[in-house]
Amino acid sequence: MSDFLDKLNHVITLYNDYVGGYLLLALLLPTGIYFAFKLNFLHITKFRHALHVVSGRFSKKGDAGDINHFKALTTALSATVGTGNIVGVALAIYLGGPGAIFWMWITGFFGMMLKLVECTLALKYRRFNSDGTVSGGPMYYMEYGLKDRLGKHEVYDE
Predict the structure, then answer these.
(1) The model's pTM
(2) String of b and e for 95-111 (b: at least 16 CB within 10 Å)?
(3) In this structure, are 64 and 142 located in the same domain?
(4) DSSP code of 129?
(5) Is 97 helix (H, G, I), strand (E, B) or coil?
(6) Which among 5, 76, 132, 141 could disulfide-bond with 125, CB atoms 3.0 to 4.6 Å apart, if both were Cys?
(7) Is residue 120 part of a domain?
(8) Which pLDDT tens digit goes with each residue over 122-139?
(9) Which structural domain, as residue segments, surrounds residue 49?
(10) Same domain for 38 and 99?
């Protein structure tokens, strides 16, 4: 049994090194760059509007919804920024030196577009339940957004 577990651990480690390393970077960074150009750098051009929305300028007392814009933003950020990211920055600076900060800025700049697209898809394909609650997220935009397109069954199996 121990031999099997050692082999399984080796396979999982190889897979993690390949998919979680350079391949992931090679997929995510160009995707962020693509969306940045496709959406005309929306995260920069509409930043002022975003600050107005989060600060409550467009909110009214009787608006429907469970939470306000600021709470929605902080919830989305808490799911994105965790303890690992905080420690990861310190470790990157320690191991990579000051140049690591530059590359974190570059990847963060284009990574913002990925988060914007992810949140937009979650809002577009969310579902309103009969009890008044709202359900959304990746499982919903993969189910309802991909429909019968190629690749749906690779990502989401019915």
Answers:
(1) 0.70
(2) eeeeeeeeebeeeeebb
(3) no
(4) -
(5) coil
(6) 141
(7) no
(8) 889 988 889 878 888 888
(9) 2-115
(10) yes
Instruction: Please count the structural domains in the chain.
Output: 2
Task: Evaluate whether residue 91 is within a structural domain.
Answer: yes
Residue in 52, 54, 66, 43 with CA at minimum distance from that of residue 117: 43
Q: What is the C-alpha separation between 61 and 106, in angstroms, rounded?
A: 39
Query: Which residue bears the tokens 């051009």?
Result: 45
For residue 99, give both structure tokens: 């140049």
- Residues 66-93: what's their mean pLDDT? 80
CA 10 – CA 4 distance, rounded (Å): 10
DSSP-derived pairing of the beta strands 134-135 and 127-128: antiparallel
64 occurs within a structural domain: yes
Give the Cα separation of 117 and 111 in Å (integer): 10
What is the DSSP code string of 15-49?
HHHHIIIIIHHHHHHHHHHHHHHHTTSHHHHTHHH
Are residues 82 and 15 part of one domain?
yes
Q: What token pair was written down for 8?
A: 């399984």
Confirm whether 97 is domain-assigned: yes
Q: Are residues 36 and 65 in the same domain?
A: yes
